[in-house]
Amino acid sequence: MSGSKNANAAIAPSAVALLPLVVFLTLFIGVGTYLSFQGVDFAFYQLPAPIAILPAVVLALILSKDKLNHSIEHFMRGVGHPDIIAMCLIYLLAGAFAAVAKASGGVDATVNLGLSAIPTSMILPGIFLISAFIATAMGTSMGTIAAVAPVALGIAQSAGMSLPLTAGVVLSGAMFGDNLSIISDTTIAATRSQGCEMKDKFRENIRIALPAAFIALIIFTFHSAATQVPEAGAIEWLKVLPYVTILVLAILGMNVFVVLTIGIVLAGSVSLSSIDNYSLTTFAQDIYAGFGNMQEIFLLSLLIGGLSELMRRQGGLAFLTNLVSSVIRRFDSNHSLETNGRASELGIAGLVSMVNVCTANNTVAIIVSGSVARQLAEEHNVTPRRSASLLDIFACVIQGVLPYGAQVLLLGSVFNLSPLDVVANSYYCFALMITAVLAVFIKHPARQLSAQTES
Hints:
Layout: H1 2-9, H2 19-37, H3 49-52, H4 54-63, H5 68-79, H6 82-104, H7 106-117, H8 123-138, H9 141-159, H10 163-180, H11 185-194, H12 198-222, H13 237-251, H14 256-274, H15 280-293, H16 295-313, H17 316-331, H18 337-359, H19 362-379, H20 384-399, H21 406-415, H22 419-424, H23 427-441, H24 447-454
């Protein structure tokens, strides 16, 4: 570990190292937006994201001052980062579960159950609350989306509701729960890096997150009117069982990989027992088809991981951290303690946001930003629980509005939507950003006293 820290400390900041990210965003978002204005159907699928990122990877390799073989090794190390591999495995298992459950008739059966349980006028708020509850208990937005998205899609189609808005509701609930959950990896990273208790960070977080959730619920309620009254058919409990099981296991806090694997086995067992001519080979083919459905986001996540590592080693992330630190230190010489504290909090928020844009991974962004955030907090008497809360909140906000973020890509695949359509309806993340910024400007008379107490 010490060798790694020394290596990181030796990295010289470089704004040029961020150029590959600009190239990728220009190609991916620019081409998709241009084709949208031209009236091309599925505009963002005309230039697949894994292809759009290839020139950026090539540019990052060219910009590297290391030998080509060493640069490629660094790229591969980023591709193989545990967080990236974990996301990709969730993609595969989620795709397999969705495909097998659909073949068993589980989607239709679960939609009927949902239509029977949720009033037509409260479909979207109901989906938001279900997603939020599961994500809080499960501690992962990805696992929540994998479990809830297929059901939400079926309900939205039956009720004639907006698919982009429904996808935004699922994303909103998942990010709300992931941000607050005490077993979330983002919570663990934020509290450990800032040196505070999880319960203290939760109390700080919930005061900012609840108003944002309330705003989002109001918006969803006003847009929850179905264009057609869906008819709920008979509930086939056997076919619903896989979904109910993974939701219960998620609430109990079981590992997401175990949850999805059990779901696949149960869904396959239902098909084998209730569908004529459904064999083990058909089951295997459905699993493989589910893997294939996740091919694009699987490849993009791997390539983003490699690109992020190249930019980190070339000083791109160090440039961002130095930029924020220098701005705060230049600002704090002529202002009051309260004003400096606010500037420091905004600096922490800006730092983790910029790093998240570069890494497309909120957990990694918190880990990378953690030491600088803690130093800024200590210098300006920002409490550890406050800095941990800001790190987690703004990482959540950015992750929920990134068109190339894992959560948005997964929802885009399930709903067959452009990532920008999903992002445009992420109302909770937008509301959370507003409430968090407002919270920074609310006067904290006990800031210094709290800092001394917690230290």
